[in-house]
Amino acid sequence: MFHAPVAAALAGVLVLQLLLAAHVDAATLAALSPGQSLGANDTLVSANGVFVLGFFSPRGGDPSRRYLGVMYARAAEQTVPWVANRDAPVSAAAASSYSAIVTADGELQVLEGDRVAWRTNTSLASSSPSPGGNVTLTLSDSGNLVLAPGGGGGNPLWQSFEHPSDTFLPGMRIALDRRNGAGDVKRTLFTSWRSDGDPAAGDFTLGLDPLGSAQLYIWKNKNNNNGSANNSTTSTTSTSTYWRSGQWANTNFVGVPWRSLYVYGFKLNGDPPAQGDGLMYYTFATYNSSQLRFMLHPNGTETCYMLLDATGEWETVWSQPTVACQAYNMCGANAQCATAADNGQPICTCLKGFEPKSATEYDKGNWTQGCVRSAPLACEQQNVSGGDQFVDLPGVKLPDYAVWASTVGDENACRQLCLGNCSCGAYSYSTGTGCLTWGQELLDIYQFPDAEVNNPHLHVKVPASVLETGSKTRRWTTVIVVVVIVVVVVLAACSFVVWKCRRRIKERLGIGGKEQKKIPSIMRPARESRQDFSGPKQADPEEGENGKKCELPVFAFETLAAATGDFSSANKLGEGGFGHVYKLWNAGKGEELIDPAVRAACPAREALRCVHLALLCVQDHACDRPDIPYVVMALGSDSAVLPMPKPPTFTLQCTSSDREVLFRVDGADESYSACDLTVTMPQG
């Protein structure tokens, strides 16, 4: 074993020893030449110490299995973007029994004793033109392991970037080569690990669409027989589509609208998809090329990571797929998938103009059969008025199997192109994607949850009758909504009026929680009672009508005459009706109303307050009169401010219905003096 010095390697040796559990005999190499070998604890380091090549056991895996891999030297945890012998580990039982060598013929091999566990299958003799000279193995700061002649000069015989594992690094290519025709398609494929602790080829593979649509796909293998990493450029047929990126729109994929990959230097190179045959590839390059990586996980999720220099930790930039609707064609043909906001479960609905192919299965949640047209297109029928129109779907992932019309330069031309072709079922146009058209089956439509997603709109062709039906339905819906609102408003207004007038209504109808107060018969000034002021015969003076006790007793005229000696002046305590008293009080002569016998004993202020309250108690309208509790309070407190009494009126202000209730009159409307039942002082 030969030991080659490395500039500034002293600082990196300690890190490499910790990562690879190296012992004191470990060697740190800058290059590996024929005749040299990389032992169990030796490492090959890139020029600036960004990456190292060495043997390792996966974290969380079987420690007895050892693999040759490229690792990040500055990451806090073991991170392996490329593995050589991923499907053929060597045993860790005897460290001296395995190694990596470069043969004189120009081949990199992983040996376990005499057994070749893995090889690059290259040779100087088979290369054209023959490079001549020795072959050297070096590791670049981009993570690319290169086997090249003449100390790294000339064209490489082999490089790891063309034979990837599960990680896409800056400077790598995701390529599709159709230059030899459709029968000889070559692709760069990335294959996941079998598990986090097992780097063997797993169940998921990522690569470019072999049909040339420039979309990235993740396929799920139907079996676990993927072949070796060296055969990763060979197309696999026993797979099913698991995820699709959507069409490339110059700065991002339409299936990943929230992340502009262009800022990471991600771009499409080579021949455009419409040409069919040719070479196209995606690549990306950043300012610090070692800081980003795209990794295909064992569960089929692709994740972009960024290395944080300060801590050596990996920060997740984005991942796909992470929800059920992002999986390929979750809802079947001619349907769209939306994610429920509450539980994240998929919600499948047929596109407008379509219905479930099997309503029973669709209701059960089995959406594989998808949807079919509810009515044929007008172009498929004869003598159909209205023709075909388009339903606009914004904010969606465009369907699979699009056809790019490279000669169409604006949206109207794209629309007319689809209208003129009866086999066209939808179209989309944007400056990023150009004009795309689809056939009659629209697959893998995902409704993004963010309404502000700036994605190209999808326009689905439907017969005009579908839109007219929807328009009529919307019109009837609008009419019904307006009518319901008007009815609700009217009912609410009526209810409010009834609530405000409930007391009056109850008084008119004689119903309610409290029994209506009835005016005693002596207070009803019928025509005959006004002639002699006697009024009708009164019942028990202590009882009102229906035997209810009255708040104040009411006496018949005969009773009052007998009690006062036919209203003798000797028995008179005072005189004056409401009008007379109000006039003296309003003129500031209220003290004249006080009996001289009590003037000395009663302060004038208290007497005038009693007169003030008395005037309020005989106001014409009940709403102006104080109730008994207020009277008691006002008499017991000088602080209560009393309202000014209103002047008396001499005509009752009431409606015809009021008269019928109060006075029991029949016939024409009449006015009654408000002083019918008062004692008026005679004049002259």
UniProtKB/TrEMBL annotation:
The chain crosses the membrane at residues 476-499. Its main location: membrane. It catalyses: L-seryl-[protein] + ATP = O-phospho-L-seryl-[protein] + ADP + H(+); L-threonyl-[protein] + ATP = O-phospho-L-threonyl-[protein] + ADP + H(+). Keywords: Disulfide bond, EGF-like domain, Membrane, Receptor, Signal, Transmembrane, Transmembrane helix. Residues 379-462 form the Apple domain. It is a single-pass type I membrane protein. PROSITE patterns: BULB_LECTIN, EGF_3, PAN. Disulfide bonds join C331-C348. GO terms for molecular function: protein serine/threonine kinase activity. Residues 29-160 form the Bulb-type lectin domain. It is found in: Membrane. Its EC number is 2.7.11.1. GO terms for cellular component: membrane. GO terms for biological process: recognition of pollen; response to other organism. PANTHER family: APPLE DOMAIN-CONTAINING PROTEIN, BULB-TYPE LECTIN DOMAIN-CONTAINING PROTEIN. This is non-specific serine/threonine protein kinase. It comes from Eragrostis curvula (weeping love grass). The lineage of its organism: Eukaryota, Viridiplantae, Streptophyta, Embryophyta, Tracheophyta.
